Amino acid sequence: MKIRGALALQKRQVLIFVVLLGLSRAGNINWIFLGNLARDLGLKVDELSSREARVVSDDNKKYLHLDLLNGDLLLNEKLDQEELCGSTEPCVLHFQVVLENALQFFQVELHVKDLNDHSPTFLDNEILIKISEGTAIGTTFLLESAQDLDVGSNSLQNYTISPNSHFYIKIPDSGDRKIYPELVLDRALDYEVEAEVRLTLTALDGGSPPRSGTTLVLIKVLDINDNALEFPQSLYEVQVPEDRPLGSWIVTISAKDLDARNDRKISYTFFHASEDICKTFEINPMFGEVNLRSPLDFEAIQSYTINIQSTDGGGSFRKMHPSS
Ligand SMILES: *[C@@H]1O[C@H](CO)[C@@H](O)[C@H](O)[C@H]1NC(C)=O
User: Start and end of every Cadherin domain (predicted)?
Assistant: First the structure.
């Protein structure tokens, strides 16, 4: 709080107080000392009560208090600039000090300036977002806003995100004076390359220098079934004597899923198999084991070519080529 000046005019004096208001929303009512009216008006302290001094403001708000015992003029600390002036800047309040007898008026101006004494803060120190790796470029994700108890130019002005190759911040024009950040996907995510992305979101206010607050944005990339299954071998060649007993194991094939999720079951089936093959062999769909189902006869058939398909919901197949 600073008193900028007191103009000593005989009839109409104008006193100007400048107060820097740092907002505090908690606690008891405290009073900010603006100045001593008796001294600034050139009166004796007991004159204030004997001449029935009082403070008169247009809107009759009780934000000012004149202490007649010592002449101190006080401002209710719990008021904030927004309450006093709305968004009008500069915030100047006019009021009068009236002495009843003999009648005398003093014009007083109160210049209220918001002090940038609060940093923007986020409610949470981590924001978790789950984004599927197939998500289209340009998709936006609403992020949590920060709070700043200061007003006017000292309030929140901007958001930035730490440098990265996938996202940028957009601040949509919301119509009102509130600003909130949106995260925009700029380059596709790939779970198999990067399963999570950690970014720092910074909120900046308009003070000079600006104050800032940060939060972690943790992006979990969700895997989609974007990789075909792969067989380590494209051809399994097996020789089997014709006198193998029924149920004998012939070969086991296995496919590899390049999608990193392991809760997806791979299953195996014959693919476009002839009646002969279906009659002679069977495959365990879970383990890819091919077993003998009916006797082989070298004189009748000397080789079989079996296509086996493995699937995880997508599809991919390779051949197996047992010969007897
Ligand atoms: C917000 O920050 C970005 C990145 O630093 C900058 O390009 C932009 O001009 C800023 N916007 C405002 C309104 O200050």
Answer: 123-234, 232-314
